[in-house]
Amino acid sequence: MAPYASDDTTSGRRKAVRYVVPATVVGVAAATIGLVPALADSGDPDLPKITAQQLIEKIAASDVEQLSGTVKITTDLGLPDLGGLAGSLASAGGGAGGSKDGSSADPSARLTELASGTHTLRIAADGPDRQKVSLLEDAAEYSVIHDGTDVWGYDSASNEVYHSTAPQGADAHGKEHGKGGAEQAPTPKEFADQALKAVDGTTSVTVDGTVHVAGRDAYKLVVKPKDSASTVGAISIAVDAKTGLPLKFTLTPKSGGAAVVDAGFTQVHFAKPAASTFDFTPPKGAKVTEGDDADHSVAGKEKGGAALPGAAGLGGLDGLNVLGDGWGSIAAFDTGSGSGLPSASSGGDAGAFGDFLGSFGDKVTGTFGSGTVFKTRLVNALITDDGKVYAGAVTKDALVKAADTAAKK
Amino acid sequence: MSRADIAGVGVRVRRSWSLGLFAGEFTVTLRRWRTLALLAVLAAVPVLVGIAVKVESDGGSGGGSGGGDGGAGPAFMAQVTNNGLFLVFTALAATLPFFLPMAVGVVAGDAIAGEASAGTLRYLLVAPAGRTRLLLAKYVTTVAFCLLATLVVAVSALAVGALLFPLGDLTTISGTRITFGEGLARALLIALVVAASLLGVAALGLFVSTLTTSGIAAMATTVGLLTTVQIVDQIPQLHAIQPYLFPHYWLSFADLMREPVYWDDLQKNLGLQALYVAVFGSAAWARFTAKDITT
């Protein structure tokens, strides 16, 4: 009754042989997954040798105005994973500051997201007037669109829109720069000369071979601080050999390990993006928040793209001193509270929170007194018990030394 | 073995036989109360989601759907009140993680083991079709069910969305606008991608189905495996293996609503499904063509 049942004794081996098929499929798939990236990576492009000076000239001469592409940013500051905590702190701070109308489409609220983890951005630009940056999320997207005088932020997850107007000056400046650029701005060669001369004593700038980035041939420019106190190991910038556009930026800490910041194009096209990319009208029913003029700096920063995160925030603090220069510079300011971290003895929730925060840091002492050092893989900060803060991309010892020097004065 | 048995049969006869085999299998599957109940549950999900969103948006003061917690709920939830077409995407996002694969797992798990436990498998094999052919017909039936189940969700969601909410031009998640017609085309494309996302589970279920003669055991194992894999996909410490789990890129169908479409994860998803089909499909073939059929 079983016409297709195996009926001979020799078929036992042939039965087993059939399982070779799925096994082979698994093997081929594993080999493909393992080998293809390795094969794709092998062989750096063969480009004519150039000096660091020529490469910087190339960057300065770059006049890419139209492009679209995908950028992957990975940041690993070595912070403890405080995603939820940071969120609750931000909301608590927002409540105290009275900014109740905070919209999830507000660009400044979104910048902090980039400070940890891996993110995929899409970038499109068409001249100085039209740019778009989109942060890709799961089944949602956050876009900042600059179209002429309008700056829109659109958060598709919550269907919220943020709108502000771009300063007219920026456009005028852009055009002026375009026209009078030849007379006023330094030529790329002068710029490269000046840039190299400015950093000469503190920094080594070299061209370290070639790489493939986003399918394009690129030179690798490596910038290394000479200052031993710096926590920055090296900054490497991949520069497109044809257009001179920087394609990839990697910051590795001196302590080794994975890059602290790794941002680069995974795809890039230099064709004019479709005009509809920059057209935005708020969808029906979306909640629109009108931004005030103060947010122009944020829009500007997003456009610049290269601005250091946090630099603007530091600039806003009163009584900020910068000690030292170059890579070893340390930002110092007085919180004015006369005390360091709130401790349990000062009572209340703040005290408990201070103790909790203190548990992340290392206690240090010096001629300045004592304090707590908070370490990340790049930036270290010393908060002294008398309420002074020293922070910089320098080692712990350099911070203590700076505090000692300041105390002697 | 099976090849020798069908050697004398003409090509044309075989082809029509395959079609007939598939048509017969598909009709039998659709006639089962179990299958109809599964489809009814799937059709009910968009209705529930639609009514819930409608009730909440009517009750909520100010008309806006609570903007603060935009990340909560299935994807696209915030846009449903403004455009009924988004209910299709929301419903697919809500059913893809569990309801849809569960239904497919039940049908796929039942495919061979169900026949075996009902004692009908040997009669099917009496016909000069060969085991490979029968297995293929069973898999094609399951694939057709994947498509049917997805379309049931999508059509039900579109009907509910059109009844309860306005329709019209829509805004992609990238902020650009597309016409309603293009939106419909994208919805169809998304339904196809979602159906394709289920091919891996279908092949896995078919393989499990060849291992046992108990239909219930095969269904339970497939759905259990699905749940386990879904849980593993959520554990951060296991991130190294997650890109190889079949549900990992399922929600990438939402990338079709970006402008321009972001293909990376979609390609990974379809590639992964193809890999699962190749591995478990051939494993099912190896098992089924070599096993003793006694029931």
TrEMBL record, chain A:
Transmembrane segments annotated in the record for this chain: 19-40
Gene3D superfamilies: Lipoprotein localisation LolA/LolB/LppX
Classification via Pfam families: DUF2092
Record InterPro entries: DUF2092, LolA/LolB/LppX, Sporulation_related
Span list, region Disordered: 164-185
Superkingdom of this protein's organism: Bacteria
Protein name (record): DUF2092 domain-containing protein
From TrEMBL, chain B:
Annotated keywords: Membrane, Transmembrane, Transmembrane helix
Transmembrane stretches, start-end: 36-53, 85-113, 134-167, 187-209
Cellular component GO terms held in the UniProt record: plasma membrane
Pfam family, one: ABC2_membrane_2
GO molecular function: ABC-type transporter activity
Domain of life, source organism: Bacteria
Keyword Transmembrane among UniProt keywords: yes
Keyword Transmembrane helix included in the entry's annotation: yes
Protein name: ABC transporter permease
UniProt organism field: Streptomyces galbus
